[in-house]
Every structure is written in structure tokens, then in C-alpha cells.
Design goal:
This protein is of the alpha+beta class and 118 residues long. Helix content is 53%, strand content 18%. The protein contains five helices and four strands, in the order ααβαβαββα.
Length: 118
């Protein structure tokens, strides 16, 4: 089963590379403003997870610079479990006004990013 999952993961990554969406182009000042807002965000993800790929593609399509963290490795795995409450990916960590919000589910993450940055 491990081998099948590994092969499927590599196929997903290859197809994502080949069919990567175009990055949204903004004026320099607008992009700097968006970059400042995304500094307080991090995406906890697995590289070959199809739902994580879906979120990363949406991030690229929006032209966002959100830090991606591999949730399989420490200390990110421990942070996700301890602070987020569960070991589930994709998970977007949003820090605003001293408050931290953990947003799970790819559909919800994409909806949030579209509402905020579209």
C-alpha cells in the first residue's frame, strides 16, 4: 500500500508541476500590501496530498506568498497538533490582532482566501 500511495503522490506532484496555474499579477504597491497581510499566515500541508495541492494551486492563482510547512516533520507536526487541536491537513494558520485562528478543510481555506484577497 505504501508503494501505491508513493507512486500516486509522485503522479500528483508531476501533474501539478506540468499544469501549474498562472500567478495573478498585481501592481507593485498592491502586491506589497498583500505580502504584508500574508506574513501572518502559514499553510500546514503534506507535499503530495491532493487537498493540499488544491489549496497551493489556489494560493498560486491568487498570487499570495503564504509560507508552507510540512506537517509530517517536527516541529510543525507538534505545533499543528498542540495549537491547532488536530493532525489534519491542509490547515491555514491565520494570526490577526494577536488572535490565532486555525482553518481546516481545503474548500473553507480557498473560500477564505478568495473572500479576503480577490
Amino acid at each position: 500500500m505504501f508503494i501505491i500511495r508513493w507512486i500516486l503522490g509522485r503522479i500528483i506532484l508531476f501533474l501539478n508541476f506540468v499544469f501549474a496555474p498562472k500567478k495573478r499579477q498585481r501592481p507593485r504597491e498592491d502586491q506589497q500590501k498583500v505580502d504584508a497581510e500574508t506574513q501572518a499566515m502559514a499553510l500546514y500541508q503534506y507535499p503530495a496530498c491532493p487537498f493540499c495541492v488544491k489549496v497551493r494551486r489556489a494560493i498560486r492563482r491568487q498570487g499570495l506568498n503564504i509560507q508552507t510547512l510540512d506537517a509530517k516533520k517536527s516541529p510543525h507536526k507538534d505545533e499543528l497538533t498542540a495549537q491547532g487541536g488536530k493532525q489534519q491537513v491542509p490547515c491555514l494558520r491565520i494570526e490577526e490582532n494577536g488572535q490565532v485562528q486555525w482553518l481546516y478543510e481545503s474548500k473553507d481555506i480557498i473560500h477564505y482566501l478568495d473572500q479576503r484577497f480577490a
